[in-house]
């Protein structure tokens, strides 16, 4: 009886939050240029980073021409972490309000979590676009760039078209999975 009631509750909750999704083939409707033309966006979702350790967090990412602001909550049980990215600088505020600044963005992130995460490239990859001026190899459901494989397993409808919902970024033993729950495009 309890199992039946639990199943009914889960089905009801799943129905309330349904998102219209598309597979990789359908999701490639927007061109590379259309994706790069998106200048300001907000995204909310969940992030999993797996290497020797597993890190999970809820993520809120605001992007505009001047900067990116990422709020990670639940990361390592330490509370919220706020990351501000500018073109050549990263500022990290930990849960205690302590501030750290670096001019070497990717190396700074690597020192914080113990391995390299291509956060500067993720600005484009999260939209389903690859970095301009950097060699890229097209694959069936994504591409390979900078030694990373970026796969788009699922897309969702937004106000400007279809954008990625489930993204996998892998290199050797490092795996990032991002599930987008909401896109807001300005």
From TrEMBL:
<dbReference type="InterPro" id="IPR029046">
    <property type="entry name" value="LolA/LolB/LppX"/>
</dbReference>
<dbReference type="InterPro" id="IPR004565">
    <property type="entry name" value="OM_lipoprot_LolB"/>
</dbReference>
<protein>
    <recommendedName>
        <fullName>Outer-membrane lipoprotein LolB</fullName>
    </recommendedName>
</protein>
<comment type="similarity">
    <text>Belongs to the LolB family.</text>
</comment>
<keyword id="KW-0564">Palmitate</keyword>
<keyword id="KW-0449">Lipoprotein</keyword>
<keyword id="KW-0732">Signal</keyword>
<dbReference type="Pfam" id="PF03550">
    <property type="entry name" value="LolB"/>
</dbReference>
<keyword id="KW-0813">Transport</keyword>
<comment type="subunit">
    <text>Monomer.</text>
</comment>
<keyword id="KW-0653">Protein transport</keyword>
<keyword id="KW-0472">Membrane</keyword>
<dbReference type="GO" id="GO:0009279">
    <property type="term" value="C:cell outer membrane"/>
</dbReference>
<dbReference type="GO" id="GO:0015031">
    <property type="term" value="P:protein transport"/>
</dbReference>
<keyword id="KW-0143">Chaperone</keyword>
<keyword id="KW-0998">Cell outer membrane</keyword>
């Amino acid at each position: 009886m309890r199992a039946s009631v639990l199943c009914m509750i889960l089905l009801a909750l799943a129905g309330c939050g349904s998102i219209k999704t598309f597979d990789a083939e359908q999701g490639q409707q927007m061109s590379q240029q259309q994706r790069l033309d998106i200048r300001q966006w907000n995204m909310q979702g969940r992030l999993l980073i797996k290497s020797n350790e597993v890190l999970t967090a809820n993520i809120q990412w605001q992007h505009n021409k001047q900067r990116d602001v990422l709020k990670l909550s639940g990361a390592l049980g330490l509370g919220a972490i706020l990351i501000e990215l500018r073109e050549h600088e990263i500022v990290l505020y930990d849960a205690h309000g302590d501030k750290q600044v670096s001019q070497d963005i990717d190396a700074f992130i690597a020192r914080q979590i113990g391995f390299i995460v291509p956060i500067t490239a993720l600005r484009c990859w999260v939209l389903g676009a690859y970095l301009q001026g950097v060699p890229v190899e097209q694959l069936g459901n994504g591409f390979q760039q900078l030694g990373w494989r970026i796969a788009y397993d699922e897309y969702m409808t937004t106000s400007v078209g279809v954008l990625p919902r489930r993204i996998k970024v892998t290199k050797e033993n490092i795996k990032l999975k991002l599930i987008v729950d909401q896109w807001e495009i300005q």
